[in-house]
Amino acid sequence: MSEPSVFQKTLHGLRYAATQLIDDLKIWLFIGLLFATIVKTFIPETFLLQYGSGVTTMLLMVAISIPMYICATASTPVAAGFIMAGISPGTALVFMMAGPATNISTLGVIRNEMGNAVLIRYLLGISLCALGFGLFFDWLLQFFHININEQMSHNHELLPYWIGIFCSILFVLLSIKPLRKLIIKT
Length: 186
Description:
It is built from 9 helices and no strands. It is mainly alpha-helical.
């Protein structure tokens, strides 16, 4: 039996990504997006600011960001907004580390594939690292007298809006099995 070509391997990987991977993630992605919508709708933007900065706010940030479905690209402007609103850069770093590293879909897959013990260790590792680096970052900024607000002047979108719309439509079409069968021969 001959070794499959690079093209055949690529097609196999794309078929897997467009079928099995989407089937494994779609329900957890929906739950994560629903949770993010609930948080965004019912928790006021100034909610975190009333706690100031420090370990308490960082722990609260971990609790909010772990189940939220947010990628590294999306977390950056959110964290910048938090900093501009008045929370410490270390607390924003906790959000930027814990949010993209975890979400409801990732947690569901880890629990299903590896069990609860691994899930707990994973969450503890992410949480402790995020808290440690957040506290260290705040300490460094104070030690070197750096004001992050002065450094933040503007930001730009990474991808054009139409790419996000196209990818969203493609994901929805591939998530619905009868429509997927029209697109991909499985």
